[in-house]
Amino acid sequence: MKNNLLLICLFLSFSGICHAQKVKLKKEVIFIDGKEVLSFEKKSHKNEYVIYELNTKNEIINVVSNVNEGYKKIIFTESKKSLETTLGYWNSSFIKWLIEQNVLSLDGKLDNEKIDSFIEKYDEKITDRKLYRN
Questions:
Q1: pLDDT at 116 over 50
Q2: What is the pTM of this model?
Q3: Domain count, the chain
Q4: Which uninterrupted H or E stretch holds 25?
Q5: How many CB atoms sit inside 10 A of residue 115's CB?
Q6: Residue 58 belongs to domain spanning
Q7: In a domain, 78, yes or no
Q8: Does 57 reside within a domain?
Q9: Which of 84, 112, 118, 119 is the least buried, fewest Cβ under 10 Å from its Cβ?
Q10: pLDDT tens figures, 6-56
């Protein structure tokens, strides 16, 4: 019985690993499964990151960290939509998070419908809460 349980756990763990996307950020390029997909740039003393379509300056996502307040504002530039969240951080995990939520496809395209559901799920409306407290 223990062996069967162990085999099931190993299988589930292995299948999860197989489906995970390998994301790497190197020299201002975002690689997904070894393929160059997007580019990025660090700005404002590493408090702002901008993601571009590959080999262009067409900005698709802007991530601004408010270090003093402990949150990030994620702006989907083309759709002019944004959210504020204490979740997430800037690195390959952020890109994986967007892929897992189907906001970002493996070829670097954004899905506007998924952006809406992503915002609905994760927007903490931090600025709005601060306005109400004052």
A1: yes
A2: 0.79
A3: 1
A4: strand 23-26
A5: 23
A6: 22-133
A7: yes
A8: yes
A9: 112
A10: 334 434 444 444 456 899 999 999 999 999 999 999 997 778 999 999 999
